Amino acid sequence: MKALRFMALLFAASFAPCVAQTVSSTAAEQIIVYRLPDPERVYIYPSGFVVYEAKIPENTIVSNAFILPENIQLDSLIISLSGKRVYSYSTETAEALVVLRRGEQPATVRILRVSIPELPAGASLDVKYGIRNSGLTWTPVLDLEVEDGGYLGCALLADIRAERELSQTTRYILAQRPEIILVSSQNTLLDDRGAVFNLGKTLIEANKRTLFKLEEGRARYDVVYQWDANREERLSAVLRAPSPFKTMVGQVRRYLNASGMNISQSSGLTISPDRPIVCYIGEQPNIAAFKSVRTAEFPERENQPFTHYLEYRVTNQLDKRASVEISVPVSYGVKHRNEYHFTKEPDERPGDRMIWKYDLGPGEQALVEFNFDSETKDNPLYSQFDYSEGGR
Question: Are 287 and 229 in contact (CB under 8 A)?
Fold first, then answer.
């Protein structure tokens, strides 16, 4: 009977050396069995893409070949020998008997066999590769809690989920508590270390959702009442606070807890040290808003025969002071740039918008008035105004 060789499936991060065991009934019969080494490191990306790093010890290489999981992404495979890339190798998909757990019989597993021609004797290899359909995903979560004294408790969490139908090898690897590293960006070359979170040797189990705290902080918050004046009828209440985090993470789910209630916001927020945390709370009908427009025609003006006179009025009907922001988009014109004339200049001009800011006491009113000369008479948004004259 010919000798059979069994290799361990190298399905995790950096591997510890494994020892081959030889079982023989006669001198002519030998079976070499390689054990599955304990994993050390796994990189998980939000999309579910997983990257493994592994050492391939000398005693797991048979006839210049070693094995990897079948679902490896071939274009992500990197092989190194003594720190230098190995570019010449071949791969084939096959079935092999693999020992997954110590003390168990080997099982038939579909694998990828990697062969390297002219591999030096006694060589050990380093490999890095990505896995598709890993069954592991993570999502950044921002948990906010309104505290006494005008403070906001902030916790940046990692929500890690493992599917129910994880492969047997993945279940074994996670049970060994490998080093779990979460990466928040698809391109770490463009991000600093704030995009990588090392959770250490933690336990991740199949069919479970596990939360980990990445960073925690506290910041003072304000409630600002914003009015997208040309598009909205009412003002929106928005909670705003400076970010207490050093981390930059995109597509973050938000949860705002106040008085035992949870306001979930599914839209992806970007957390960054240079950006405030902003949460929409809801509409505020107790701050009255009024907008009007009057359009006048001046035929003697060749390029800009129309002037639009706009008025935006906000009245604080709350029994407390309110920070109000009135936001109006800039109208540019087509052939000729519109010319603006302000009673009060905007406080900010972010992008294509103009913003006026007010601190109103109970019963106080804010008034924004301006006009602009234009080549066009009509604006479809004027149909939503409380009063419109001279258009169409």
Answer: no
